[in-house]
Amino acid sequence: MKRKTIIIQTGTLLLGIIGGVAIMQNDDAYSSVQSALGQGTRNTVGVNGQNLQSMDIETALMMVQSERTKLLDAQLKSQIESVQNRNTVIMDLNATLSKMQQLLAMFPSQAASSTKLPGSANGVANEIKLLLEKSKVTLVYSTKGEVEDAMQKLKSMIDAQSNSQQMDMLRLQSMSNKRNEAFDVMTNFIKKMQESRSSIIGNMR
């Protein structure tokens, strides 16, 4: 009777393992686990240089899932850096636009579009030059008309960067959710394995 119970518990353990692997079916990790279980015996399968075929199934699955979590962490970190870099770009463009507005205010109110920059605008013009170099943007602003055109281009750039920033934030949220899901799967897997092992050991006594 005890032997039959142990066989049932072992079968339940294997079903739990298969279920855990099925959760990872959309990842490369699934292929690695398949090979580790014997479906790819012709080739050596490894994670971080370690051969999964030489490990027990629990250790192999834990290593694969742990590696998946690490990869998601790396992707999440990269996406956060991308969002931060775009924020910096938007801030620099807004600062440049603000300086352009100051520059435009230095022209006489009735000045024609072809009016050259007044001598008093040299300081602001130099600040704009530095900001544009930092943003790697090229704009012409030697006359009133060119300043107005440059301001419109800056506004378009800021709008485009803001739209891209929204997409970056959506990707960041998606990656964060995937990372949390991977962590939960790994935690639940450890818990299930411990429970199944305890149950099998208890029935063997």
General form: rod-shaped
Strand order of the largest sheet: 1-2
Radius of gyration over C-alpha positions, nearest whole angstrom = 30 Å
Mean pLDDT: 75
- The N- to C-terminal Cα distance equals 12 Å
How do the SSEs run, as a string of H and E?
A: HHEEHHH
The quaternary structure here is single chain
Helix content: over 70%
Proportion of strand residues? under 5%
List the uncertain runs: 1-45
Q: How does this model look, in words?
A:
The protein has helices spanning 2-23, 28-39, 57-105, 122-135, 144-204; strands spanning 46-47, 50-51. It is mainly alpha-helical and 205 residues long. It has one domain. Strands 1-2 form a two-stranded antiparallel ribbon. A hairpin with a 2-residue loop joins strand 1 and strand 2 (50-51). The longest helix is centred in the C-terminal third of the chain and has 61 residues, at 144-204. The chain is rod-shaped and about 100 Å long. The model is unreliable at 1-45 (pLDDT under 50).
